[in-house]
Design goal:
Blueprint (H helix, E strand, L loop, with lengths): L17 E3 L7 E3 L10 H20 L5 H13 L15 H14 L4 E8 L5 E7 L11 E7 L6 H17 L5 E6 L4 H9 L14 H5 L46 H12 L4 E9 L3 E4 L7 H21 L7 E4 H4 L7 H8 L4 E7 L13 H15 L4
Length: about 400
């Protein structure tokens, strides 16, 4: 729950806190809460008692404003004041990212618009940034691409790379005639929870359908990329894992029913509303260095061949955009990775009929989900080159 009084400047893999010492003393040592932080002891004690109580009331009452008390207590010990300034050499919290997006909208009113497409379980906005350059004849429909990141909370590089991509598009690319929709935080609750509490949190923060588990606030969340209607729950049992699971405690829990989650509904409603203009849907994940597309993409051999060739070109474009640093392979998702039923990719292709549908697993460099933040710009540049390859084919 973050019972540290002073935010550490560096942390080891177990997230122990450190403090900075004068150079002659050796530089760094574990934070032992020295005497000049003694007034914080009462805060630790109060937080240790108040947060569990707040959680209990939050989960079991409907008192208006109760969630605000919960947020205040958690934020008190885990968060710094948001400034709206983004550095692409570190990862940022939801509030910081949203403030930056609003600042970017104000600074680029002629080409950028923020669209609220839904609200999460914890009452956070789900925001899409629309980038649109130039005007076409009013009778001519504009082609568009939807690019989504951060559907799994722990995949920080996914959201960071999409945000960096947004800035690069505004600064370096005249994508005239094509609207670009960017959803950097498809799962803002899960993303925030992975910062404030459990770094490896994957799901959203919905309640467990089990009454007993829900009473104690246990086994929360649904894997949003198992919650879309297409093929939802197909061959899924309590004992399956990668495809999905019917156990709410599992990381790949598919949800109580198709489209049960507000984040899923928000994407479904928005994409359905714009399906006539959307020529491509791209889902950004971490990690694996692959460009994959849904299995059984089409029963037409020429379409199947086209999507395969395009995947190879996109994999090459990502490598080129990284300066040759990151190599990608491509192919059907069931062959290259594993099949996930109820995924957004299957839904976008088979239910919405979108022409180009791809899932990109960003690089790991043996760091797994702990991708170094200082390498965000390289990944953002890769995604820009990816878009420059895909958009002309739309």
């Amino acid at each position: 729950w973050g019972f540290a009084i002073k935010r550490g400047k560096i942390r080891d893999m177990n997230f122990r806190r450190y403090e900075e010492l004068p150079k002659e003393s050796g530089g760094w040592r574990k934070f032992e809460q020295p005497s000049n932080y003694s007034r914080g002891k009462s805060l630790v004690l109060a937080s240790g008692l108040s947060i569990p109580c707040a959680i209990y009331f939050y989960l079991n009452t409907k008192v208006q404003g109760m969630h605000h008390a919960y947020d205040v207590l958690v934020n008190l010990v885990t968060k710094e004041q948001a400034t709206g300034e983004i550095s692409f050499t570190e990862y940022h919290r939801v509030e910081e990212i949203y403030m930056w997006l609003k600042n970017m909208e104000m600074a680029n009113k002629d080409v950028m618009e923020l669209i609220k497409i839904g609200t999460t379980h914890e009452n956070r906005d789900i925001l899409v940034a629309k980038l649109s350059v130039g005007q076409t004849n009013t009778n001519e429909s504009r082609k568009a691409i939807f690019l989504e990141g951060g559907i799994h909370g722990r995949e920080w590089i996914s959201s960071a790379a999409v945000i960096n991509l947004l800035q690069l598009i505004l600064e370096k690319w005249d994508h005239r005639g094509c609207d670009i929709y960017l959803l950097p935080l498809a799962n803002p609750d899960g993303y925030e929870f992975s910062h404030s509490s459990r770094r490896m949190w994957r799901k959203n923060r919905g309640r467990s359908p089990n009454i007993l588990l829900n009473t104690f606030g246990l086994c929360k969340g649904t894997d949003l990329n198992r919650n879309f209607p297409t093929f939802w729950g197909e061959d899924v049992t309590n004992f399956t894992w990668f495809e999905g699971s019917r156990l709410s405690c599992a990381e790949t829990y598919i949800g109580a029913h198709p489209g049960s989650e507000p984040e899923t509904k928000a994407i479904i409603d928005f994409v359905t509303q714009h399906r006539e203009e959307l020529s491509a849907y791209v889902s950004i994940h971490s990690f694996g260095n692959v460009v994959v597309y849904p299995d059984n993409y089409s029963d037409k051999p020429d379409v199947q061949s086209e999507v395969e060739m395009m995947a190879k070109k996109l994999a090459e474009s990502l490598e080129e955009g990284s300066g040759g640093e990151d190599r990608y392979e491509s192919g059907p998702i069931g062959c290259v990775r594993y099949r996930a039923v109820g995924s957004v990719e299957d839904w976008a292709r088979h239910a919405m009929g979108i022409k180009w549908v791809y899932l990109v697993e960003l690089p790991s460099n043996e760091d797994g989900f702990f991708f170094p933040s200082e390498e965000i710009p390289r990944v953002g540049s890769s995604l820009l080159n990816f878009l420059k390859t895909l958009v002309p084919e739309m």
